[in-house]
Amino acid sequence: MAAPLSLHLEFGGGAELLFNSEKKHQVSLPGQAGPWDIRQLLVWIQQNLLKERPELFIQGDTVRPGILVLINDADWELMGQLDYQLQDGDTVVFISTLHGG
Amino acid sequence: MAAPLSLHLEFGGGAELLFNSEKKHQVSLPGQAGPWDIRQLLVWIQQNLLKERPELFIQGDTVRPGILVLINDADWELMGQLDYQLQDGDTVVFISTLHGG
Amino acid sequence: SLTAKSSLSNEDIMRYSRQLLLPEFGVKGQINLSKTSVLVVGCGGLGCPLAQYLAAAGVGRLGLIDYDEVELNNLHRQVLHREENQGQAKALSAASAIKSLNSTVQCCPYQLQLSPENALDLIQQYDIVADCSDNVPTRYLVNDACVLSGKPLVSASALRMEGQLTIYNYKGGPCYRCLYPAPPPPDTVTNCSDGGVLGVVPGIMGCLQALEVFKIASGQGSSLHQQLMMFDAQDARFRSIKLRPRQSDCAVCGQNPSVTKLVDYESFCGSAATDKCRKLNL
Amino acid sequence: SLTAKSSLSNEDIMRYSRQLLLPEFGVKGQINLSKTSVLVVGCGGLGCPLAQYLAAAGVGRLGLIDYDEVELNNLHRQVLHREENQGQAKALSAASAIKSLNSTVQCCPYQLQLSPENALDLIQQYDIVADCSDNVPTRYLVNDACVLSGKPLVSASALRMEGQLTIYNYKGGPCYRCLYPAPPPPDTVTNCSDGGVLGVVPGIMGCLQALEVFKIASGQGSSLHQQLMMFDAQDARFRSIKLRPRQSDCAVCGQNPSVTKLVDYESFCGSAATDKCRKLNL
Ligand SMILES: [Zn+2]
Ligand SMILES: [Zn+2]
């Protein structure tokens, strides 16, 4: 059983509006048998942080189109996407793409 | 006798013009009996990096007026100034103030 | 294309003297810039400062596309237009302001909606494209047209107190579809007309966008290759993100593209190519 | 001072609708902004974009100081001026551009050199000062006058491909003299007229400077308190530095100040208050 995991979550580009308009969240994920990955983090966010209209954030087991996920300032595509195994102290950012001009 | 010290030095705002127009310098200070401080670093820079006109960079035992020194993204005044003891991996930035508009 | 220029006139030397002094730029950079044509898609909050600084610096030719007309609620951020231009075509209003700033720049206003029918023809006439548009279908359209024409796309956006800047289709970096293969659900899209925007935020992003266009045009190359720059005005913080490279399975820039000509982007996105009423009734 | 405004006209609501939508700003922020007066010291590369965006957003009163006249070599970065304004006073040229963008802003052009004789009188009439000047003596003069009058000073600078932005004399943070107690040796000072500047760099810095003025004026407060923002255009990188607080031994804002009235800043700095010929023969 691994120790609890401390994460720094950020939401931006409008995604924060689904989280009480708070952009920064310091969270602690409970210890579990194996490591936490992003797929599990999304379920945790949906159950613990997301206040309303989850379909505006999650579709199926991933984020909805138009949200970019960044792990420690890198595109999650470079880090293994849903399979990335979270480390204590990681920063994960969810950014909604802006289209205005 | 302490191990050699690896430092990341940066020059900007025009101060880089005294260093071959190179803004970033990865340097290694030789091991010595006690710790290195900024006062000693300035002497080392003058002897090893500074190509010409040292008076445009150093006056007495400190930097000339109009150059700001930053240690790991903080004003050196907050860090003990000339007496700050350098740690391996530190970033030290020398920025010339800009006045143009 | 532009007449090849191999030297600067005396007036050019006087006008651009402050940037000719820069070792990174110099006479060669100025001549390169004067040979470069840039297409600006959208003369709004981003397009105004971008066009203003590119013209001031002496870009060769500037195409200005906008189908819309100047309204009073534009003036808090669309700083090329004046009160007296209300009701006029934005493309013409912007072109007239540009001319009074630098009459030596060739300025081509297009009062039209960029569409799958006209986009390739227009984009093929330019070296660099700046996406300053305000809606999702236009962003996919501009991206696909740039990939199909092989043009670098400098793309900025702004909303509320945030901004984003990326370069697509440039030196092995991703295109817009590599990052966003599927369009966002129309319900999740907020435009400036419903979300609001602080005027100086597109000002900052349009200036940064102009800087990258400028660096590509002068021959230095953009430093935002395969990067996304994000700006949060509330805490005055910038963050640069390393992006994925070009994706081999991308629908338009991948190895076996399914998009080989422009398509119907309003249907694809389920929304109209305007920031005024965001949903399309299909 | 400005007439106290407690509500917005219908035209205000139309014009500023896109920023009234912002929860951080809203009607209260707009009314606060309309009650605020800002003094812009210098109508050059920084002052032009700053004045442009503050006026567009609806600042109450804008003072525009510049002793100089528009020259051709200004136009690559000083985007409020037009070719036809060459030879005119910059303060008047800028004021006329501002009026055509937003006629509801009170605009006060001053064609004069800010000096120890007039600085306090002028600064006392404004709530916030923006230093957009181009030389060392003026920067010390503006600083001391702001400290003696208790005004926040939003200060930007640009040279070659770099920019800096700080807020002085604000919420316990340092003043310019706290950071730079002694002036730089005149030999080490490079101005835009000898070092050059890429035009869009003061564009970016002036817009960021306007943002911080805007945040102070609307009541949100600046996020650059006791911070220095540095920009390197070559690699499109911003860096924010934590600065020292107000220094108790500062000559002007310290506990026993030696500077209690304005002094002769050209003598103090050994250079003239212009960016044209940098050395003063003493
Ligand atoms: Zn692609
Ligand atoms: Zn002080």
Using brief descriptors, characterize the structure shown.
heterotetramer; A: mainly beta; Ubiquitin-like (UB roll); two-stranded antiparallel ribbon; 1 helix; 7 strands; C: disordered C terminus; binds zinc ion; Urm1 (chains A, B)
Describe the overall structure.
The complex is a heterotetramer, with two copies of chain A (101 residues) and two copies of chain C (282 residues). Chain A has one helix and seven strands; from the N terminus they run ββαβββββ. Chain A has one helix at 38-48, and strands at 5-12, 24-29, 58-59, 62-63, 67-71, 74-75, 91-96. Chain A has a five-stranded mixed β-sheet, with no helix packed on it. Chain A has a two-stranded antiparallel sheet with strand order 3-4. The model of chain A has no long low-confidence stretch (mean pLDDT 95). By secondary structure, chain C is an alpha/beta fold. Chain C has helices at residues 10-15, 17-20, 26-34, 47-57, 90-101, 119-123, 136-149, 176-179, 192-195, 200-218, 265-269; strands at 37-41, 61-65, 106-110, 128-131, 153-159, 162-168, 227-232, 237-242. In chain C, β7 (227-232) and β8 (237-242) form a beta hairpin. The longest helix of chain C has 19 residues, at 200-218. The chains are: A mainly beta (101), C alpha/beta (282). At the C-D interface, α1, α2, α4, α9 and α10 of C face α1, α2, α4, α9 and α10 of D. The complex binds zinc ion (ZN) (2 copies). One zinc ion binds at residues 174-175, 177-178, 246-247, 250, 252-253 of chain D.
